[in-house]
Design a protein that fits this description.
Helices cover 48% and strands 13% of the residues. The chain has 13 helices and nine strands.
Length: 269
Amino acid sequence: MEKIAFLGLGHMGEPMERQLLAAGHPLTVWNRTAEKAEPLVKEGARLAADPAEAVRDADVVITMLAGPDAVRAVADAIVPELRAGTHWAEMSTVGPDVVRELGARVPDGVTLVDAPVMGSTDKAASGQLGILAGGDADGIERILARFGPVTRTGPLGSGAALKIVVNTAVIGGVVLVAEAMKLADALGLDEETAKGALAGGPLGGAVGRAFATDVHFGSDLAVKDVALATEVTRLPAMEAVLDHYKAAAADPDVVHEDIARAVGHIRSA
């Protein structure tokens, strides 16, 4: 079994790591806050003191981090340690430019794949995420499939690009539902009746996500993802969506909570 180093134990990383442990892979983990690794260590993972130590003997490296700055910082530490033959799956949501930047830095013989995921914590826990794999994923697809079905998206960076497209649609859809419910509130409509009518229409999936209670995708991360999209091209509707999430993320009680909490913030604004 391949020796795997997994860097990042956030809301998504921890359940993904459990999929690897369940499959029997020798697993080394690292997280900026080491205490978060304690449950995984009890289940058989080894805790590394720093990113460089984590990847030194790994056959496969997986990074699942909060954003571009975190990925660059970890890359600074691990790139000198990567051995020829190692496969690196960058699974964070960082956009294609960062992925190509990493691709220019990896040593000869190291294969970088961008493989961000579709789905939230519930899908991560059940191994049913959708994996968007860009680049040469032949040597790592079997491991990525531990997390869910793998879709080949094209050359390096294409998985990261498609992830921004998907997230833009989801995050924007949640705001549309929030504003529709704000209108329903203003018109004096019963909440459950309005939700039911919206759920039966074209925004049905977004309604479910807007009122979800068993998943997690923070408003701060929504700000990061929409900002990545609006930096690529002019998206007037998404610029308005970004303003909504920035306002929600400015509330310390909402910033790290799931985007469903932002719905209430938008309705009450």
